[in-house]
Amino acid sequence: MIKKTVLPILLTTIWISISEFVRNTFLIHNYWTAHYQKLGLIFPEQPINGAVWGIWSLCFAIVIFIISQKFSIWQTVILSWIIGFVLMWLVIGNMGVLPFTILPIAIPLSILEALVATWIVFKFQPKNGNK
After folding, report:
1. In sequence order, which residues have a C-beta less than 8 Å from that of residue 39 and are 6 or more positions away?
2. Does 3 score more than 90 pLDDT?
3. Dihedral sign of CA atoms 109, 114, 119, 120 in order
């Protein structure tokens, strides 16, 4: 149970958290802060925001795990990416707080994030012929 459920979710959560941190802190941080400044807002970087992103990472890992139970690895990657990123970008874009200039960087890195997260989950699944 732990090796087949908790471990892949935990490892996937760690991967997603690291991926999000590196992308948003080192690669596109300036895009976010400049965009928020243009809006007259301060980019939210308090510890509580990091904690919420940690919860998001855990929820995303759980979603990937659940989807992986019914779909192939590639179907899981595609569905996970749409659920985790496309829907989020649609919402924050609609709210006017998405700096669209990040998308050329964020799209391939988010696909990579979903791909590696899915690979981690599949790596720990029992082998069966259903997928």
Report:
1. 96, 97
2. no
3. positive
DSSP conformation class of 62: H
Q: Could you give the CA distance from residue 87 to residue 85 in angstroms, rounded to a whole number?
A: 5
Burial 113-127 (b: 16+ CB within 10 A, else e): bbbbbbebbbebeee
Distances (CA, A) of 43 to 21, 35, 50, 89: 15, 9, 12, 16
Distance in angstroms (rounded) separating the CA atoms of residues 1 and 18 = 25
In this prediction, residues 90-114 reach a mean pLDDT of 97
Residue with tokens 């904690």: 51
Q: Which of 45, 17, 50 is nearest to 33 (CA)?
A: 45
Determine contact, residues 22/82, Cβ cutoff 8 Å: no
pLDDT at 96 over 80: yes
Distance CA 53, CA 13 (A): 11
Which token pair is 44?
């939210």
Residue 130 has pLDDT above 50, yes or no: no
pLDDT at 79 exceeding the cut of 70 = yes
